Amino acid sequence: MAPRTRILAIDEQPYFRELLTTLLSAEGYGVTTAETGPEGLQILEREGPFDLVILDLVMPDPEGVETVGGIRARWPQQEVIVLTGVGDVHAVVSAMQRGASDYLLKPIDREALVRAIHQALERGRAGRETRQLVDENLEFMRRLSLVERLLPLAGEHDAGAAAHGLFELLATQLGARGGALWMCERPGGPLKLVVASGPGEDKAPKEWAAPSPEVEQSLLSGRPDLVDRSALLVPLVEGARLVAVCRLELPEGFSAKDLDATRPLLEFGARALTNALRVGELRRSSLRDAATLLPSKAFLYEVMSVEIERAQRYGRRLSCLCAELQGAHSSPPAELLQELVHAMSRTLRTTDLLCSEGGGLRFWVLVTETDQIGGVVLKRRIAERVRQVLAREPGLSFALGVASYPLDGETRDDLIEGAQARARAEHASELHGLGLDPHATLGEIGRCLLERATPQPSWMLADVAELLVGELVCRPRESGLLFLAPGSDPTSIMGPLMMLGESEIATEIFLATEGDTVPTCSTLTAVALPVGFSAETTWIVRFGEGPPYALVAGPERADGRRPVYHSRDPLLVERMTFQLCSEVGVGVRS
Question: For residue 590, what pLDDT band results from cuts at 50, 70 and 90?
Fold first, then answer.
């Protein structure tokens, strides 16, 4: 049951207090009365602010105006209605200036009183809701700011850098004047000094030891320990063991509320340091491919487990690339392997991981903070540089496959198997049999495909366009690109496009026209026909997170059929897409 609304009535006249109690109780309010201003202030101190205070301005020592000021000074949000029977405008104005929200003249009209009380309570309720909303927003922004500062630690592979970053966050959060951080380098090992800052940094011991068994037990339970009034020991615990201990020199005025603000840092920091130590240990291990001196596939397995856990925890994406050499029956020459490793390494970021297996017959790349489209872009850059290396090795070919988390799987094995399957599919791609020059234009690609086209009913194009547009509407969050050139039969493309209307979709649509009216859609952009394009040829290219698809159709023949070449071959669609990006200027939103 909801608590009754509480009203404090302060008036020196007993009969008027009784009158207010009778009237307000009949309206369902809980009423407390006081004879003088000091008595009312004592009640407020004892029972806390009321929903409303009703106060007579004409009272002895102190006067009502002074009481209003005292109430508002102590409880700034307290709603106060003042009463006066003398018509003293000056007193009423003074009371309003001191913080009263309304006034009524004696004798009191019951309806006017009830109406004034209702309005005052509504103002108070609205004020509380506004303050609560502001407080919630401030707390949300504080937490968001903390998360933004924590996230860089999640991807840190160097334990020393992670320790420095965590120390700075803790010191900033608590306003510390300085301190030190000790961290273990291996499970069960001693805590060694990693960071020392501020006064006395040169006196920090090289290894940390608990001042007493009681302090050590407190830290192992995850509770910070106040050494004295000026220093705090902050533990970072993972799996019932101390990963690190941070000592912070506290500022004046430190409180338990300040300490509460560090709690999200502690769990997160312990996990970040543990992961960085684990990766560092792997980097120092012998998990290396002897032929390339790169980390081996076993190392990739371990790091992927850590990165997928981070991706799941923080809503990130990552991609796994598999690159396979074909045509070599044994490990390639050391000089060639060195060039291949150099070509791939200089394409990657410092945070990306390059591994190899089988003596350099297969390479793996783990790319963090990258979705499927970003993985394909990186794959093409690597392929271009590797092709330059293999140009003098006609017997060798190279194919790459990409699998992304979470689009292609949510486990390490899913991504590894998916990337390897796509690399093999790239080896078998129909693109290799087309005999296209690596620098062929769109017009040349179109003519090559139409030479291999088969006659199809003209209505097929409208069905394909309708199917693709329908997929965009059904799966609006899939990002990518859809390129359309209507050719000699605009209705086959324009009709399905009208289905989009104002649909919000992540795929960007590019419509190549010669001044035709363009359907309304927030993600549709009209572009000019590429140079060398036949205005009679219809093009459809779909690339992105959904299934790949490409279609090229020539002019309609006398029998009502059109020559059509269409394919779901990923490598062919990718080649056509990036040639579009080059010639038409369209882009793929990642």
Answer: very low
**Cα–Cα distance, 441 to 436 (Å, whole number):** 10
- Residue 111 CB: number of other CB atoms within 10 A? 8
Characterise 326 by phi-psi region: left (phi > 0), alpha (psi -120 to 50), beta (else): beta
The 10 Å Cβ neighbour count of residue 375 is 26
Count of H-run helices and E-run strands, the chain: 17, 21
Task: Please give the residue that has the higher pLDDT: either 562 or 394.
Answer: 562
Contact 183, 163 (CB under 8 A): yes
Q: Which CATH number fits domain 442-584: 3.30.1370, 3.30.870, 3.40.50, 3.40.630?
A: 3.30.870
Distance, in Å, from the CA atom of 444 to the CA atom of 576, rounded to the nearest integer, reads 11
Kind of pairing, strands 362-368 and 241-249? unpaired
| pTM of structure | 0.54
Ordered strands of the 353-357 beta sheet: 353-357, 362-368, 318-326, 397-405
Residue range(s) occupied by CATH 3.40.50.2300 in the chain: 6-127
Per residue, the 3-state secondary structure of 47-73, as one string, reads HCCCCEEEEECCCCCCCHHHHHHHHHH
pLDDT at 260: 65
| Per-residue model confidence as pLDDT tens digits over 398-446 | 899 999 999 899 999 999 999 999 999 998 899 989 988 888 888 899 9
Q: CB burial class (10 A; 0-12, 13-18, 19+) of residue 377? A: middle
Nearest C-alpha neighbor of 376 from the set 207, 214, 581: 581
What fold, for 287-428? Alpha-Beta Plaits (3.30.70)
